UniProtKB/TrEMBL annotation:
The purine nucleoside phosphorylases catalyze the phosphorolytic breakdown of the N-glycosidic bond in the beta-(deoxy)ribonucleoside molecules, with the formation of the corresponding free purine bases and pentose-1-phosphate. Pathway: Purine metabolism; purine nucleoside salvage. Belongs to the PNP/MTAP phosphorylase family. SUPFAM superfamilies: Purine and uridine phosphorylases. Pfam families: PNP_UDP_1. Residues 22-268 form the Nucleoside phosphorylase domain. Keywords: Glycosyltransferase, Transferase. Its EC number is 2.4.2.1. Transmembrane segments: none annotated. The keyword Transferase applies. This is Purine nucleoside phosphorylase. It comes from the Bacteria. The keyword DNA-binding does not apply.
């Protein structure tokens, strides 16, 4: 993997991806942040050596380099998921690339369903902890110790200082920002009523199909990490209705401006 990482990094550096300070992963339906970025360079995933390719129709497939709130940023416009047939190492490969290019902080967004029924669709949740239900680890491969500490500590995977700043910004801007536990499942099917009940029992406030693998690898690489979920639907097992993926995408887009405000204001302080 080290050889592949070096090839990818050399390619991106040759294309002008120069010393980004911060990485951002944009989740499902969350692309409007790019309107705030002064784009310097971009590269399609299918042109980047050793990079996976986004196969989900509402995930674009570009790596963007530019300026946001006075900082050099690298942004994943579209991420990878286990449900696309990728391995956990594939899903997290871009995090390793961003770290090698120079980032020290990683901000992650996703669209998720609210398990905690005090949370409503269209609101935001700051992830303070997670539950990995993806059936594996992105660190479980031969030679991982050559890339970082094999037995990565996960006692505080989300940076408490950044989370404190996020909460202060939300208060200042009048944004409703819940705080909770995110459960990551494989998907792509949505959950059954029984599964939603189980998730509530084990302590999840929201559920989605991404994020946790990238967070694990970011901690493996000693990056500062924070993540925000846009809550796109309410997962009430006693009143469960069929989910329309287009409605989820529309709800993500509707709630996104508040997430953009949080990210922009936070980046100014980093």
């Amino acid at each position: 993997m080290i050889k592949q990482i070096n090839e990818t990094v050399e390619y991106l550096q040759s294309k002008g991806f120069d010393s980004p300070e911060l990485g951002i992963i944009l989740g499902t339906g969350l692309g409007q942040l790019l309107n705030e970025v002064d784009i310097i360079k971009e590269a399609s995933y299918n042109h980047i050596p050793n990079f996976p390719t986004a196969t989900v129709e509402f995930h674009k497939g570009k790596l963007i380099y530019g300026n946001l709130s006075g900082k050099k940023v690298i942004i994943m416009q579209g991420r990878f998921h286990l449900y696309e047939g990728y391995t956990l190492q594939d899903v997290t490969y871009p995090v390793r690339i961003m770290e090698k290019l120079g980032i020290k902080t990683l901000l992650v967004s996703n669209a998720s369903g609210a398990i905690n029924l005090n949370f409503k669709k269209g609101e935001l949740m700051l992830i303070e902890d997670h539950i990995n239900l993806q059936g594996g680890s992105p660190l479980a491969f031969k030679g991982v110790e050559n890339l970082g500490e094999r037995f990565t500590d996960m006692s505080a995977p989300y940076n408490t200082n950044i989370n404190t700043q996020f909460k202060a910004i939300a208060k200042e801007q009048g944004i409703k920002l819940h705080e909770g536990v995110y459960a990551s499942v494989v998907g792509p099917q949505l959950e059954t009523r029984a599964e939603y009940r189980m998730l509530k029992i084990i302590g999840a406030d929201a559920v989605g199909m991404s994020t946790v693998p990238e967070i694990i690898v970011a901690n493996h690489l000693n990056l500062k990490v924070a993540a925000v979920s846009v809550l796109t639907d309410e997962c009430d097992p006693n009143n469960l209705k069929p989910v329309d993926i287009n409605e989820i995408i529309a709800m993500a887009g509707k709630a996104e401006p508040e997430m953009i405000t949080l990210f922009k204001e936070l980046i100014k302080t980093l």
